[in-house]
Design a protein that fits this description.
This protein is of the alpha+beta class. Helix content is 30%, strand content 31%. The protein has a single domain, classed as Transferase(Phosphotransferase) domain 1 (Transferase(Phosphotransferase), domain 1, Orthogonal Bundle), CATH 1.10.510. Strands 1-2-3-4-6-5 form a six-stranded antiparallel sheet, with helices on one face. A hairpin with a 3-residue loop joins β2 and β3. α2 runs antiparallel to α3.
């Protein structure tokens, strides 16, 4: 896990860890360029097929627009890993966000996204708090 105050990609300063699952860790971070809080997801497992899946997740999330989904801001790979940068929504639990997205988005991409997130997130409900420590 990344320590608070760690600078990632010379832009994102880690504030605190939000949660950790089998494939990744999520942090509250601060975007020094835009001067705003963000959620930073770090893939912590290695493998070419997992890297491709993480990149596809970033592209899929970036292509979707819905009030129930956080906006994707950035995706990058550097010497500290692979990262997905998203809008930080204080107090939101990922499980609740996925459930809301599944109900609200009726087209096929929403169904695919909900299944994809549910299968990939692997964050426990207590570890997935985005606004308050678990």
């Amino acid at each position: 896990m990344l320590a608070p105050e760690t600078l990632i990609h010379n832009r994102y300063r880690i504030v605190r860890a939000i949660g950790k699952g089998g494939m990744g860790a999520v942090y509250e971070a601060f975007d020094l360029r835009l001067q705003s809080p963000v959620a930073l997801k770090q893939m912590i497992v290695e493998g070419e097929h997992l890297s491709r899946a993480f990149a596809r997740e970033a592209q899929l999330l970036a292509s979707l627009r819905h009030q129930a989904l956080p906006r994707v801001i950035d995706y990058f790979v550097d010497d500290q890993g692979e990262f997905l940068v998203m809008e930080f929504i204080p107090g939101r639990r990922s499980r609740n966000a996925v459930a809301k997205a599944r109900r609200a988005v009726s087209d096929r991409s929403g169904v695919v996204l909900g299944r994809h997130i549910a299968g990939r997130a692997q964050l426990s409900p207590s570890a997935a708090t985005a606004g308050h420590p678990p």
